[in-house]
């Protein structure tokens, strides 16, 4: 009799301490010293109990293996992994090959895991790997994975084996910047269009689409497969476990060039076919045209026959038509001439309005520039006066350098009113006829300057033109350089413009500003040193600019000190030298004086500052209220375009109506009725003929 086979052993729920002891021969008390555990063919449902399983077995098995680094389970019939948290912080290598797993989503957090082998299972989706950031090798061949996903957190993954799965596309690998080895043999990949995605992996060295064990992808069976892959993945050193040689690279490049040439040849062939088709179409069009001309000839013959049949009646019709055409042609020529004249007048009116608008726009731009320049100049002279009165910082370096604090000057400054006698006298001095074609100067602001506890001199007046830094230093008496003063303000301005034009860039000397009253053009509250430095540069540019909007000038009016009264010996000696050298030039640091010019070797020698003046020329010299009124005055703008168009439309309507009336007056009503009857009769005969 045959003996029946013993039934297979019932599978254990999970790995128990007894199974570990039976497999390794190590006692239970020494399980915490194990670092490698390999279990083959033992029937198990799961590797460890689930996290919510509170049975007695939860405290045994893998829970005692606190130092386990490598765990291998082969052909044990696992359907799930269970909770591996007892060994999560030590496990580096996990092998669950040849099982019945369908998912890895209960893998949990394994921060030290580097190698995961889950081949020969029933896994359909890659998931559960987000908490394994140090994973370097992942084997999932012989599964049912359909697409690459769930790999975005595996920045250290270097080896990915996905042979014999069900993937058709190659997306989802963009985050694997450290991937070196990618094996895809046995997958239904049949298109080259995803190869550029693999080219974006910077560390990829080995790729496989064909394998002796797993078979080939459909893409590997195509002609020119190896050259196409190497042409797309130029940094790969191994393809299908075969080293890529230099000859392979050259052959791939040559194949790519051949494909390009073949493509161009196909394009040329298509173009030739297109030209042939176009020629055939043109031939058909010509045949159609010839046929149409033939039909046209036949129709002409038919109409000639019709004209012969109605010749007697048509003679009268032709006469009436000729008369009608002459009347209409005459009226039409008259209408065309009238419309042309109307259009010409309209064009002239539009051109005139456009020119007026352009002139208005240019005038407004100059007025706005003049107002802005005046505002900056008034701000600059106000800041200079404030620095002389109360002290303040001076920017002597580049943007961002710390300013130098200046003390108050020993002077007193008084603003002169526009209607005061002194202001009018100063304005008259500035308006003296200038030399050349320069515009006369007009006084905008005037400040009387006096040394405290000193009386003002009563000598000859001299003018000094310069930037804000030079003017302030001259008033303070801090400048030691030679200065040139002029008897006329226009001469001082002309000399300043000449020196400014001679230099390639405007002077950028230090400027004294009052931090309490400084403000930028956009009225912001930013009072940083950089902002104040920028404002100083803008104000200096406004004081040195000259264009259609006019120009501004910052001047000092000085009085000559009598050489015989007061003053130190050096001052007297300089004045005496100046008086004696009236016919000499200013050379070698010596004083020079003439009727129009006074040059001092160092600072304001022999003169005393009496007034600080802000003057303007051109539009800058006009009254501010007048400039603002010009900006709001719309009277200079040409007539509205809508009115011109309405006038043109009204005139065209009148001419058309006159044309209609002339045509109706030239044709008699009885003749028109007869002509209409003849036309209707002719149309009926033509319909019958067709």
Description:
- There is one protein chain.
- This protein is of the alpha/beta class.
- Helices cover 41% and strands 14% of the residues.
- It contains 13 helices and 24 strands.
- It has helices at residues 17-24, 195-199, 225-232, 246-309, 311-390, 421-430, 468-476, 489-502, 529-544, 569-580, 624-631, 641-666, 669-689; strands spanning 36-40, 70-74, 93-95, 115-117, 137-139, 159-161, 181-183, 206-208, 210-211, 215-216, 238-239, 242-243, 392-395, 404-406, 411-415, 442-451, 461-465, 483-486, 511-512, 546-547, 550-560, 592-593, 597-600, 607-617.
- The chain has a 10-stranded mixed sheet with strand order 1-2-3-4-5-6-7-8-11-12. Strands 15, 16, 17, 20, 21 and 24 form a 6-stranded antiparallel sheet that branches.
- A hairpin with a 3-residue loop joins β22 (592-593) and β23.
- The radius of gyration is 52 Å and the shape is flat.
Q: What key phrases describe this protein's structure?
A:
690 residues, alpha/beta, ten-stranded mixed sheet, six-stranded antiparallel sheet, 41% helix, flat, disordered N terminus
Topology:
Blueprint: H1 17-24, E1 36-40, E2 70-74, E3 93-95, E4 115-117, E5 137-139, E6 159-161, E7 181-183, H2 195-199, E8 206-208, E9 210-211, E10 215-216, H3 225-232, E11 238-239, E12 242-243, H4 246-309, H5 311-390, E13 392-395, E14 404-406, E15 411-415, H6 421-430, E16 442-451, E17 461-465, H7 468-476, E18 483-486, H8 489-502, E19 511-512, H9 529-544, E20 546-547, E21 550-560, H10 569-580, E22 592-593, E23 597-600, E24 607-617, H11 624-631, H12 641-666, H13 669-689
Parallel strand pairs: 1-2, 2-3, 3-4, 4-5, 5-6, 6-7, 7-8, 8-11
Antiparallel strand pairs: 9-10, 11-12, 13-14, 13-19, 15-16, 16-24, 17-21, 18-23, 20-21, 21-24, 22-23
């Amino acid at each position: 009799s045959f003996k029946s086979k013993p039934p297979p052993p019932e599978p254990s729920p999970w790995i128990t301490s007894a199974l570990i002891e039976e497999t390794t021969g190590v006692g239970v008390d020494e399980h915490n010293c194990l670092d490698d555990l390999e279990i083959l063919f033992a029937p198990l449902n799961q590797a460890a109990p689930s996290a919510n399983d509170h049975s007695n077995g939860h405290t045994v098995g893998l829970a005692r293996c606190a130092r386990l680094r490598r765990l291998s389970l082969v052909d044990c019939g696992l359907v799930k992994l269970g909770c591996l948290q007892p060994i999560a912080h030590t496990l580096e290598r996990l092998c669950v090959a040849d099982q019945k797993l369908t998912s890895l989503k209960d893998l949990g957090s394994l921060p030290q895991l580097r190698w995961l082998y889950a081949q020969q299972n029933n896994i359909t989706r890659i998931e559960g790997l987000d908490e394994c950031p140090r994973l370097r090798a992942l084997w999932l061949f012989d599964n049912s994975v359909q697409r690459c996903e769930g790999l975005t957190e595996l920045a250290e993954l270097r080896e990915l084996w996905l042979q014999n799965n069900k993937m058709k596309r190659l997306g989802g690998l963009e985050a694997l910047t450290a991937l070196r080895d990618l094996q895809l043999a046995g997958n239904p990949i049949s298109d080259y269009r995803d190869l550029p995605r693999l080219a974006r992996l910077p560390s990829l060295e080995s790729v496989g689409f064909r394998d002796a064990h797993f078979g080939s992808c459909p893409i590997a069976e195509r002609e020119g497969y190896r050259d196409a892959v190497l042409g797309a993945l130029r940094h790969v050193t191994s393809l299908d476990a075969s080293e890529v040689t230099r000859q392979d690279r050259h052959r791939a490049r040559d194949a790519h060039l051949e494909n390009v040439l073949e493509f161009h040849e196909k394009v040329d062939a298509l173009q030739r076919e297109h030209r042939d088709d176009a020629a055939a179409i043109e031939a058909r069009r010509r045949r159609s045209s010839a046929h149409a001309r033939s039909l046209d000839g036949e129709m002409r013959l038919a109409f000639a026959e019709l004209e012969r049949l109605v010749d007697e009646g048509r003679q009268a019709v032709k006469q009436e038509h000729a008369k009608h055409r002459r009347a209409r042609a005459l009226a039409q020529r008259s209408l065309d001439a009238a419309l042309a004249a109307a259009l010409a007048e309209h064009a002239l009116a539009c051109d005139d309005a456009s020119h007026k608008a352009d002139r208005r726009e240019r005038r407004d731009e100059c007025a706005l520039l003049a107002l802005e320049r005046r505002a900056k100049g008034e701000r600059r002279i106000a800041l200079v006066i404030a620095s002389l009165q109360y002290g303040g910082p001076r920017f002597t370096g580049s943007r961002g350098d710390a300013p130098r604090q200046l003390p108050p000057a020993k002077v007193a400054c008084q603003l002169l009113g526009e209607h005061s006698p002194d202001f009018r006298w100063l304005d008259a001095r500035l308006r003296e006829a200038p030399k050349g074609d320069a515009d006369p100067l007009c006084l905008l602001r005037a400040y009387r300057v006096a040394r405290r506890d000193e009386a003002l001199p009563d000598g000859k007046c001299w003018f000094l033109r310069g930037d804000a830094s030079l003017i302030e230093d001259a008033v303070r008496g801090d400048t030691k350089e030679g200065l040139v003063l002029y008897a006329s303000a226009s001469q001082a301005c002309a000399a300043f413009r000449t020196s400014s034009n001679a230099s390639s860039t405007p002077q950028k000397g230090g400027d004294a500003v009052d931090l309490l009253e400084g403000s930028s053009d956009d009225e912001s509250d930013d009072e940083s040193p950089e902002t104040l430095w920028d404002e100083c540069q803008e104000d200096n540019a406004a004081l040195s600019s000259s264009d259609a909007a006019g120009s501004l000038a910052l001047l000092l009016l000085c009085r000559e000190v009598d050489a015989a009264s007061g003053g130190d010996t050096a001052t007297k000696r300089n004045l005496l030298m100046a008086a004696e050298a009236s016919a000499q030039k200013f050379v070698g640091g010596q004083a020079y004086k003439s009727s129009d010019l006074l040059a001092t070797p160092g600072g304001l020698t022999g003169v005393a500052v009496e007034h600080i003046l802000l003057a303007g020329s051109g539009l800058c010299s006009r009254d501010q209220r007048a400039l603002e009124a010009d900006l709001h005055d719309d009277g200079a703008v040409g007539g509205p375009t809508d009115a011109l168009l309405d006038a043109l439309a009204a005139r065209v309507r009148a001419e058309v109506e006159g044309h209609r009336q002339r045509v109706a007056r030239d044709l008699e009503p009885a003749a028109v009725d007869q002509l209409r009857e003849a036309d209707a009769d002719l149309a009926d005969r033509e319909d019958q003929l067709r």
